[in-house]
Write a structure and sequence with these properties.
alpha/beta, Alpha-Beta Plaits, 5-stranded mixed sheet, 13 strands, binds 2-carboxyarabinitol-1,5-diphosphate, binds magnesium ion
């Protein structure tokens, strides 16, 4: 494949034929505009887009469009996106249009990708093939640094692999990074002395793009063993700045807050899959791809499609660890693993801290649920001699 192939679903306006609508996208995103122009000379036309295929699907049509590779500036994701996911969303001749996927040729995927990837993160934690268990400190904001660290300690003692800040906690006055991070790392050291296990803490360094590398380096100076970024609110350039900076030698956890503004409507917007491809290229070691049973709206085939592109062979890049999060609790673990596999991070905030016996018990229950699945035993069976899991299943059920 030499060029870029983008796949869209669309519904044309009633006065527009599907062929015209697909052509309108091609023209808008390459060399055309709404009318003939004298400046679109013969030498320019080599950059024309082309409709590769068009077929009815559901209430609309699915089309594959080819954009010449030469239109793209290698390495400039902002520019890639303004071609494949740009003005087309606003074209009046379309009632709706959704970017389903985009495939880039090798010449446009020369990115470093994740520094650690799934195997690098597994090495840090010391796991082989089981799903990782993560937790989000809850409440998402409001705790003092001391209480945040105490909750982190409990979760670590209980057996989680990863602790992360929530997406809205950054460096507010009530819990500044300079105080929170060293305290959390100190408490995680204490937990390590007791359990022998390394636990990762993803401190949320989301900030304006031109300061983010500085903030990451400062966090590393304070002892961070992972950083987290809200990629859509912060911007792709910010993630790229972290991913490509050789001084940032810790894994990057990527949260996707705001994604549903463009991924949720099945007829319009951008599916998670093409975004996941790009986020992996930019250096995400872990990325939220959604659950198949949790509190956020979800669509199993879409979640699986996003996970697939995080792991597929792509320009020698390491695979990104997918994260299933949002409304999970131990009773949901079996369904998540059965659908999404074992190369997955299962995160529970409420589903750990809301355990009737507290955070450590909640973490134990999540780990027991994972162990049950790895042993091929049902949760109910495993719960018979695993007290924390039994309590969790009684509290939340298994659906
Ligand atoms: C999970 C979470 C995440 C969601 C986001 C939350 O907490 O921290 O932000 O997972 O969804 O605040 O909801 P709970 P997604 O475990 O308490 O639900 O990963 O789909 O972007
Ligand atoms: Mg959250």
């Amino acid at each position: 494949m030499q060029d870029v192939i983008a796949t869209y679903y669309f519904r044309p306006r009633s006065d527009t034929k599907p062929e015209q609508a697909a052509q309108a996208i091609c023209e808008e995103e390459t060399t055309g505009t709404w009318t003939e122009i004298s400046t679109r000379t013969n030498y320019v036309k080599r950059l024309d887009g082309a409709v590769e295929s068009l077929a009815p699907q559901g209430n609309g049509y699915i089309t594959r469009l080819r954009y010449p590779a030469e239109i793209f500036e290698p390495g400039n994701i902002a520019q890639y996106l303004s071609v494949v996911a740009g003005n087309l969303f606003g074209l009046g001749r379309l009632e709706s249009v959704r970017l389903f996927d985009v495939e880039f040729p090798d010449s446009l995927t020369r990115f470093k990708g994740p520094k650690f990837g799934i195997s690098g993160v597994r090495r840090m934690v010391g796991s082989k093939d089981r799903p990782h268990v993560g937790t989000i400190i809850k409440p998402k904001v409001g705790l003092t640094p001391e209480d945040t660290a105490a909750v982190a300690y409990e979760a670590a003692i209980g057996g989680v692999d990863l602790i992360k800040d929530d997406e809205t906690l950054t460096d507010q006055k009530f819990c500044p990074i300079d105080r929170r991070l060293p305290l959390v790392m100190k408490r995680l050291e204490e937990a390590k002395d007791e359990t022998g296990r390394e636990v990762l803490y993803a401190v949320n360094i989301s900030a304006r793009a031109d300061r983010i590398a500085e903030r990451a380096l400062h966090a590393i100076d304070l002892g961070a063993n992972m950083v987290m970024i809200d990629v859509f609110t912060t911007g792709f350039g910010a993630l790229q700045a972290l991913g490509e900076d050789p001084r940032i030698k810790v894994p990057i956890h990527v949260h996707r807050t705001m994604h549903a503004a463009f991924t949720r409507n099945p007829e319009h917007g951008i599916a998670m899959r093409p975004l996941a491809r790009i986020i992996r290229m930019l250096g995400a070691d872990q990325l939220h791809t959604g659950t198949v049973s949790g509190k956020m709206s979800h669509d199993a085939p879409e979640v699986k499609a996003s996970i697939e592109v995080l792991k597929c062979a792509c320009a020698g890049m390491k695979p990104t660890f997918p994260v299933s999060s949002g409304g999970l609790h131990p009773g949901k673990v079996a369904h998540e693993i059965a659908t999404l596999g074992t190369d997955i991070i299962l995160q529970a905030g409420g589903g750990i801290h809301g355990h009737p016996d507290g955070t450590a018990a909640g973490a134990r229950a999540m780990r027991q649920a994972v162990d049950a699945c790895m042993e091929g035993t049902s949760l109910e069976e495993y719960a018979k001699d695993h007290y924390e899991l039994e309590r969790a299943l009684k509290h939340w059920g298994t659906s």
